[in-house]
Amino acid sequence: MDRIILASGSPRRKQLLEWAEVDFEIIVRDTPETYPPGMAVIDVPVHIARNKALAVQAVAAPGRIVIAADTVVVLGDEIIGKPRDRDDAVAILARLAGRRHEVITGVVLWRDGEEQAFADRTSVWFHDLSRTELEGYVDRYKPYDKAGAYAIQEWIGVVGIQKIEGDFYNVMGLPVSRVVQALKKWGAIR
Question: Which of 43, 70, 85, 88 is an active site residue?
Fold first, then answer.
């Protein structure tokens, strides 16, 4: 069996792979989450994930499979990043409230120069939420490290999301069933 490396410090991605009973280790390399101007929105998270995978692959032993991912929230054609601070988090959530947005996670699996890459899209609709509800969520959960300033598995996902179309786990940060299928394709798991 190949040794699998998760190139992410995300506790959610770690948890999802553990739930899938994938045996892996974590190696994280500091990688800028930047992309070229004008890049198609769907390509951005794959581009960032590829850079993360390559950074870890550079220090990994031969034959190791590196899994890297990046998640973006998209409102219209605009990528909504991680909030800068409390006020920015509340402002982002106010823009998402009562509207539909997309969550796109790009995934790259890399092994000895061979790559499997894909992006998974999930549509999310928020209920209208009051400023008090948004501020309360931000103050309790401090979602400063999350694209779109929220985590679907927290309070806001339980009461604030009207519906989703697509993979719930993609919104958490990893379309884990597709990752498992990719690992099976390489014979890394059964």
Answer: 70
**Tokens describing residue 146:** 């999350």
Amino acid at 43: D
Specify the number of domains making up the chain.
1
User: Is 13:174 a contact under the CB 8 Å cutoff?
Assistant: yes
Is residue 87 flagged as an active site residue?
no
pTM over 0.70: yes
Give the span between the Cα atoms of 95 and 116, in whole angstroms: 34
Instruction: For residue 2, name the pLDDT band (cuts at 50, 70, 90).
Output: low
26-67 pLDDT per residue, tens: 999 999 999 999 999 999 999 999 999 999 999 999 999 999
For the domain that residue 109 is a member of, what is the CATH number? 3.90.950.10
CA–CA distance, 3 with 64 (Å, rounded to integer) = 5
Q: What is the mean pLDDT of residues 11-32?
A: 97
SS (H, E, C) 140-177: HHCCCCCHHHCCCCCHHHHHHEEEEECCHHHHHCCCHH
Domain range for 136: 4-185
